[in-house]
Q: What sequence folds into this?
């Protein structure tokens, strides 16, 4: 694993004042899609220092392998994620029937909260890194056996093409 770092931009924090474009010595920040070009980035950190919104971080170009977990822990986490997903679905469905009222807003917030917790559990269960082989395997399984008729197979296929 190399010590190389690359810059990544958090689009939610970016206020688009373009300072990073002026200071970058390689033009890596000047892209059409707002994603800093990892091929051009040399990890100098000038953009992160210049950014007034703290929207840029330097991250390792190559991540270490995720730490392994025992099957019993993974199984318990998956069960927990399943329960959280069911609660999210129920809260969303009831919220949809109660539009524009306090209880509806509360249920929407609850659904979002359950989603966040589920995502966290899934990261803990071994899907921390989108580049990991675990994620690839999960996506391949979902494409082969979609969990619901509305599962976005084409999007999952596109993701599989993008993942190294
Ligand atoms: S300097 Fe920071 S806020 Fe400005 S465009 Fe770049 S990332 Fe966005
Ligand atoms: S770390 Fe350096 S090379 Fe990479 S995008 Fe920022 S300024 Fe450009």
A:
């Amino acid at each position: 694993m190399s010590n190389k770092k690359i810059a990544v931009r958090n689009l939610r924090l970016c206020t688009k004042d373009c300072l990073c474009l002026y200071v970058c010595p390689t033009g890596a920040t000047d892209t059409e899609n707002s994603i800093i070009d990892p091929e051009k980035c040399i990890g100098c950190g000038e953009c992160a220092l210049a950014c007034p919104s703290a929207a840029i971080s330097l991250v390792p170009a190559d991540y270490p392998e995720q730490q392994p977990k025992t099957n019993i822990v993974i199984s318990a986490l998956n069960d927990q994620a399943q329960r959280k997903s069911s609660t999210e679905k129920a809260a969303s469905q009831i919220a949809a029937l109660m539009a524009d009222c306090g209880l509806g807003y509360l249920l929407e917030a609850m659904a979002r909260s359950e989603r966040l917790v589920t995502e966290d559990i899934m990261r803990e269960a071994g899907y921390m890194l989108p580049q990991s082989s675990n994620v690839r395997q999960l996506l391949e399984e979902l494409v082969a056996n979609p969990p619901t008729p509305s599962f976005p197979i084409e999007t999952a296929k596109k993701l599989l093409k993008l993942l190294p």
In short: Residues 72-128 form one domain. The chain has three domains: 5-60, 72-128, 129-164.
